[in-house]
């Protein structure tokens, strides 16, 4: 069975855990020659209610949208974007729903997303975008824990690895 990955979706909230997942998304895009889609979802406006703890004004929402539009191209780096096909998008709505819609509309082959590593009560109360995507997505989802895994080398590790010589083992 051959794996054909033409489009990879990297949804980001600009957190540290998203940064770890971004390294995987870039590496996979390079290896497959795939187009990398970066997506940020800005929450919908909420109506301030008497018992509401949080609401956002239209001006705050517009500011977040503008910030995301500026920041997304910087996520993978300008030079990387020049060498590889990159698409940036900002959507407004519920995070999981917007990621699913985007994935289906753009025929995404793989979603790469970071996990926040929440446990216990915070995970129970807040849920997990990554967990919901794993259950609902129509394509494979790669989740990346915030603690970087050593199989994805950073720039210095790549240089060191390319300088090392392989010594054949004797049987």
Description:
This protein has one domain: Rossmann fold (3-Layer(aba) Sandwich), CATH 3.40.50.620. The protein is 45% helix and 17% strand. The protein has helices spanning 16-32, 58-76, 78-83, 95-105, 120-126, 129-136, 155-163, and strands at 7-11, 35-42, 86-92, 110-114, 141-144. The model is unreliable at 121-126 and 155-171 (pLDDT under 50).
Topology:
Blueprint: E1 7-11, H1 16-32, E2 35-42, H2 58-76, H3 78-83, E3 86-92, H4 95-105, E4 110-114, H5 120-126, H6 129-136, E5 141-144, H7 155-163
Discrete helix count: 7
Helix content: 40-55%
Radius of gyration: 18 Å
Reading side by side through the largest sheet, how are the strands ordered?
Answer: 3-2-1-4-5
**What fold name goes in the CATH topology slot?**
Rossmann fold
| Annotated CATH architecture | 3-Layer(aba) Sandwich
Q: Briefly, what CATH class?
A: Alpha Beta
The helix/strand class is: alpha/beta
Largest sheet: 5 strands, parallel
| Name of the CATH homologous superfamily | HUPs
User: Any low-confidence stretches, pLDDT <50, length ≥5?
Assistant: 121-126, 155-171
Based on CA inertia axes, which overall geometry fits? Answer: globular
Q: Report the mean per-residue pLDDT as an integer.
A: 80
Number of domains: 1
**Proportion in β-strands:** 15-25%
Q: How are helices and strands ordered from N to C?
A: EHEHHEHEHHEH
Instruction: Give the termini separation.
Output: 31 Å
Give a quick set of tags describing it.
17% strand; 5-stranded parallel sheet; globular; 171 residues; Rossmann fold; 7 helices; alpha/beta; 45% helix; 5 strands
């Amino acid at each position: 069975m051959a794996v054909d990955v033409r489009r990879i979706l990297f949804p980001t909230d600009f957190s540290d855990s998203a940064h770890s997942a971004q390294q995987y998304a870039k590496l996979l895009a390079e290896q497959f020659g795939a187009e990398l889609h970066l997506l940020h979802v800005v929450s919908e406006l909420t109506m301030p209610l008497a018992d509401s703890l949080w609401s956002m004004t239209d001006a705050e929402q517009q500011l977040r949208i503008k910030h995301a539009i500026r920041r997304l191209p910087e996520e993978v780096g300008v030079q990387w974007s020049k060498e590889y096909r990159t698409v940036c998008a900002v959507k407004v709505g519920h995070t999981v729903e917007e990621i699913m819609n985007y994935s289906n509309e753009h025929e995404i082959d793989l979603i790469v997303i970071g996990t926040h590593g929440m446990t216990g009560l915070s995970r129970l109360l807040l849920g997990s975008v990554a967990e919901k995507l794993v259950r609902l997505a129509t394509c494979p989802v790669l989740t990346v824990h915030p603690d970087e895994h050593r199989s994805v080398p950073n720039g210095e590790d790549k240089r060191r690895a390319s300088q090392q010589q392989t010594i054949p083992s004797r049987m």
